[in-house]
Predict the structure.
Amino acid sequence: MPGTPLVGWDDIAAVAPDGLAVLDCVGRFVRLNPAAVALCGAREEAELLGAPAPFALAEGEGACWVGPLNEQSEGHAQDHSDEPPEGRSDEQVAHWESPSGARREFAYRARTLASDPTFTVVSFRDVTDESHRQRRLVAIAQTSIALATEGSLGSTLDAVAQQIVQADGLAGAQILTLDSTGRELRLMGSAGLRHWDAFLDRLLECRDRGARLCMLDTLKERKPIVVPHRWAQIREDPAWEPLHAYLGELNWDSFVSVPLMARGRPEGVLNAYFAPGQEIGSRTLEFLSAMAEQAALAVDYATLLQSEREGARRNERQRLARDLHDSIVQQVFSIGMQANAVGVLGTRGGPVPAESVQKFADEVGALSRTVLADLRAMVHELRPPSSARLGLEDAVSALVKSTEHRTGLAIRLLCEQELDVIEPELAEDMYRIVAEAIHNAVKHAEATTVTIRLGVRDHTLTASVRDDGHGIAESAGRGDAAPEGKAGRTARHHGYGLTTMRERAERWGGTMRIRSGAKSGTTVRAVIPLPVRVPESPLADPESSRSAQQAVPLRETAKPARSGS
């Protein structure tokens, strides 16, 4: 009959594909249909009755409008407003953690019940996978932008790691790169993990105690390695005791290591740390592999750029050799011809006119001065870096003596042991950092004393330069005591010099920090972790087969400076 319902509303709610829930005035579940119970990860409605719901009670209250291009915080996009942005539906997004620990994202609509405004009716659906896909696409796009806009390789890989953490809400991510020999690993990018200079040293200690580093398996097998519940394994393994406290700071459970491949060879590894309850499926591995490709492109580009720079240096040396032949050799030949002419005049036995002697002397003098100037210029251009010629300690010592004699500045140099193990390119960059800090103390800080500390401790190269002069801000801004324009030029110099120093440290995965005050002077501190040496064959692991069966392909990982497994 007209007006008589053919089906009861309870029957409709029971078969509705979306979740339907009723909330009381304080936001607790009062009723749920079967779809809502399943979406929340419960077996029965009774498990959820009286539990706090993740939904806002009123329409628009605490709304979280989500779009793929929104900025995200801890893996979740947020756009709070009272009305949905133009072009979007009125759906809001809430985050839910099921009793089993799985984390889900729900898109929902809420309406107050007309007959009783103390109750709110909510319809919701699971958009976890859809949101992940959106965030992953955005992460890949923004990473491509970072590759073109970021400065140093370290800042680029930090940006890649940050995009990975934000896109999937991971606990942390690390990117390690291999050196040109393929024998040393260095941490170059990370996100979500505390930076710790001693991490590499502790990691080596764990390896020496028998811990197996899963990232070495990744490099060897050249494929992703997944280890479910890795933190539980590490926590119970005494070989990892030196890193238990540090790794325990991170709220993580499972672990994935993905190789960075470029031109068919491994360039490093991407390590991902998953929060408890996060699932690692095929789409997750596809996303991590795509981000690893982006990181590999950055590493490969940096390698090619370095190769081009080395080629440019070789070409410059060849140019100098040609200039040596075309100018100096010819000039020396001319001097020889002039000397022969004087000898011929001497063999004639008669008096030599004074004018001729003076002419010869003037020509030989002019040629010799030209040769000397050209030689000095070429010697300066061809001179190898100070640290390459002398070693880091001797190079800094020579710089200190030269600066003291030239300026009268009192400089105290304190060097620890093991500086001779520093590779030449790293030694040169650290030398330049120290040299720039000394230059700033002389030219801008008006310091009277400087203390330099240099050494290797906990597998980390550290340099600090402290002066007793004006702080950077003061020395850069004392316009009233300087000629017009000097303050601006000083500030610009500080900007350029400090940026160069920071880039030199970041090139090796290190950091450069500055403390400065008007009365306390300035302290520049550069810290660069030394790389982990990749063994010829990974250490044997008596439990490797058992771990491999529990994992997807293999077992675990360990990382440098900002996190670890």
In short: DSSP finds 16 helices and 18 strands in the chain. The radius of gyration is 34 Å. The first helix runs from residue 9 to 15.
